[in-house]
UniProtKB/TrEMBL annotation:
Residues 214-382 form the Spore germination GerAC-like C-terminal domain. InterPro entries: GerAC_N, Spore_GerAC-like, Spore_GerAC-like_C, Spore_GerAC_C_sf. This is Ger(X)C family spore germination protein. GO terms for biological process: spore germination. It comes from the Bacteria. It is a lipid-anchor. Residues 23-205 form the Spore germination protein N-terminal domain. It comes from Paenibacillus agaridevorans. Pfam families: Spore_GerAC (PF05504), Spore_GerAC_N (PF25198). Belongs to the GerABKC lipoprotein family.
Amino acid sequence: MHNRLVRVAMIVILLGVLAGCGDQRILEKQGFIYSIGYDWLAKGKSAEGSVPGNKVKKDQLSVTVWLPVVSAESGRQHPLILQTVASTGKEGRFRLAKQTELSLASGQMRTALFNLQLASRGIMPYLDGFMRDPAVSQRLKIVVVDGTANEMLKKEYPSHMNTGPYIDHLLEKEVMNNRVPESTLYSFMRDYMDDGVDSVAPIIKQQGTHIEASGIALFDGDRYISRIDSDQTLIFAFLKGSFKYGEINIDLADQERKGEKAMFSSLAGNSKVKIKTLPGERLYRADISIKIHGILLEYLGDLQLNMESDKERLEKAIAAHINNEAESMVKELQKLGVDSIGIGKHVRNSLSYKEWKNIDWKAVYSNMDIRCNTKVTIQSVGKFEK
């Protein structure tokens, strides 16, 4: 009996070892896509990297993937970049698979890049494909490229050997600093399906030997329609909700305050929206209360910040500046007809389901009275303090 148990145990162990070897051989044949890029290729244009003069005869899609590959000889990792032209995203993946001996897998995909031209035509066909693939993570980052995704992925950056992780880590840092909003497959689809808010995504751009975040892409449904430039993205964060970190450089100069500037760090705070129903049919007003506190890193001006009265004057001046910027941004969003900060969710929550469904929210939103009220608290003025 004892010998039989020993033999059974040895067989189980042997099977486990063999199974492990089998899995290893399978993994060696996998090509795990890290980044995928989509570019719109208009009729008569040539795909980047294609034979010169080889122009497409109809509107097409350029699909590029970046994946890390380990050399069997040296054991070192190096990037593999594949590119093809297709009519759809799925056809593109099929054509890419024919270019390599590896089986392309989506389980490690971190970023999906869409150039502006393609994003303006709608990205839902590609997001729908991701949603249908159980291997694709809901944390997949959705990104808009000012330029071409192909050029960005294939370019070598001297300070960053691996472009895929470089883009991924850059976005994580910029999100943490509130310079761009987080936009994952989950959050983009959540806002896309929500009738009280419109989706947004970060915009990145190739600048010489590096890549930088250059703004926020504004979507109407699944179509890109406009952007918020990088110098205004923190204002968007103030309007959107709570924020824990950020830096902002404020130019307070006018006819009376020549050359006055202030730089804030460690910004934190939140915004709250209150909806008021006004007399008349389907008229509403939104009051956005923004509270910000932070540390003054630098100040150029005539105020004596070791005096409480001057400190309060600076707080009010900064609050007025931010308030003007916030209200200007809200008006621009209304003009574009996109509710990127989610005012509609607050209006919807103040109504019954029937009342909400009976209003034309797009029309109501575009003409709605939206006001901002900003309060700034300077927690520390550093060397200016007594």
